[in-house]
User: Fold this.
Amino acid sequence: MYFGMNEETEKFYKEFCKKTQSKNGMWEQRFYTDGRLAPCWGYQIDETASVIFGVYDHFRKVKDKNFLKDTLRMCENATTFLEKYIEDILENKNKFQKSYDLWEEYEGVSLYSISAVFGAFTSMLKIYEEVKDSFENNRLKIEAINKNVKKIEKLLIDIKEYCLKTFYDDNKKAYIRNVDDRKIDISLIGTVTPFNMFTPKEKNIQNTIERINMTLRTYTGGYIRYEQDNYMGGYNPWPIATLWMACYYLETGEYKKAIENFNFVTNSSADTGLLGEQVNNEAMKPAWVVGLTWSHAMYIIVLERLIKKKLI
Assistant:
């Protein structure tokens, strides 16, 4: 959508996501591009949440309410699943399969994953707000929407209270990614951007950013994913982590820092212009997988924001 590929984006949600959604409303971890289930090694709750979040994000750009109406049932089914999943966590029932974190390494309850659900619920409220008028002659649907809205609003309050109680470490003076290893992780920024569970200048968030800079920033200026990240030798910065910091600094108006992070990734690209999974601190060139989609996607997101703010 950042390239103006609105038709392709709409097709993804209206066709691919509908085709691959499970009967219980969730999406499995991995699929082939033709919609067949690909090999999976677990489940990631943030992936189901991100579909709802993405549907509303696409609407914000195209302003097509017919798109929202077409994908409404899909989003409602996903929301129903997420409601049951998050209630299971809040009530400590442990009936559902544990979710992997976004790095696909830790299986349990992660702050990033919970914040993704928060973002999905917030998006669902906005979707209802946009489509509600089109059901003005359908009393039963309006009643169902109002009931769902009240439930989601309560869950949003409960989620924030749970996260503050569970994931804020008073000793570190920062949020932690989970209660098992209690590590600082770049994905903690997800609570601010994109999922807006917390605001960027909250004291707890500022403390967390300070801790991130103390523990995850390398001597070359890039950022690793999390404390003691030893993947493929470890301690190499990751473009996605460094660009995530740029996103945070754009939220706070610290534009010089945002540009520094963006330039770090730009200057450490391959001669072909491709970005890698990591950056070799010695050579300042891509390391491991080169041409990583995730890195390029985040680069485009940051680039668009910099252009909109006329910073480059």
In short: Residues 240 and 295 are 5 Å apart (CA to CA).
